[in-house]
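Supplementary notes for students who missed Thursday's class. We covered one full example, reproduced here. Read the sequence, then the structure, then the short commentary at the end.
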Amino acid sequence: MKPRTYSWPDGLLLLAAAGGLAFFFAGQRGAGQLEAENARLGQRIAAWENRGAATVADGGPAGRGLKGFAIAGPSGMAKLAAILRGAELGNLAAAREALVLDSQWRTLDPATLERMIADARAADLSEQDRERLIGKLLEALADRDPARAFAVIGEGFAGKTSREIQGELAKHGGLFEKWIKRDGLQALAWLDQQIAAGNFDSRSLAGTSTLRQDYESRIFALTGDGSRITALDPADRLPALQSWRFGDLPPERQAAFAEVARSSGLTPAEVAQALNPLLKRQMQAGDLADADAFFDRVGVTPEELPRLSEDAAGQALFALGKKADELTGEEVPAIRTWLGEKSAEGDSYIGSMIGRGFANGWDAGQIFSTLNQLQEEQPSDDLVSTFLIAASQQGGKQKLDHAAAVELANRIADPGKRAVTLSAIGDR
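Structure (token representation):
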């Protein structure tokens, strides 16, 4: 809906009427106060008249539209940048002007947007103002013609170091997604050109290209085509598959995701790492039945099952640990049984998780009650040892009673494991 407008005479009549009301209500005020109000009214009338007389070449206010700023060149870009800055800082007047302009960005043709970007680069602006304004212009250009938007981005690479080019590309992943949705083949061709030019070669000490991981993961998230991920360097594959973008991957696409991970040359443990974020989202309530459903859906292999089942058991224990009076009873023994059917290291993992829970402040009475229950049902040196080692780590919110810890460690039947545990808890 277009904002309501008034002719200048109408505006003056309105302001005059407002002045009349002000005069009426000011009858009982002092003459000095009335004079001050009349002066302010005169300023408002003058401002209204000046607004009507402002020329497009002067840059004009936001009410004259984005095309007015565009015609004004670099000075217009400086004024537009000031509005955007003020709106971001919470200036109400600037926010109102920016709101009026918001509906106009997409009405500008690509040639005008390109010219405005060039003017913004030439304008006398702080780098922060320039980046904010150019980002807004590039977003509008990408909506109209993403290929031209990325061509303009490439023009900004001139004279920049590889590191600076990497930083610039890192800002525009969202625009790349728009391009993928609009013309995937064209976007992928551009990406391959950039890779060939070495613009994605900046590598970390670990030998990975985080920027390429990001762009490749965006492609898979949007298209489901995992061929580019499987073709990545080995050090890039797992990080690309662990992208936060896959946390919301719908159930119907999770099996395909698992197959991409398996066909990428990852080890079973690495495949489990890639699947873990999806599993955690599936198990937000800590229900192991949800884990079983996830395993069925993605076709977990016997080699992947131990690691993923440990992750699931950890989620279930964490959910219990956040609730008062939930660690006692049959819940933890049930988790132990479930995990024991899937992982030979189940007791070690359960003990370690409960030990971490103790260090993080879980109820000590409940924890020791649960440990005694577990030991009575099925004694386990691994359970006790890993619990004590995890619970005694430095920096925890809660400290083990040393005498009680030593007494518990001495119940470990295996002499070697007992000695290791006593050393870890600081027995002298």
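Commentary. The radius of gyration is 33 Å. The longest helix spans residues 31-53. If anything here is unclear, bring it to office hours.
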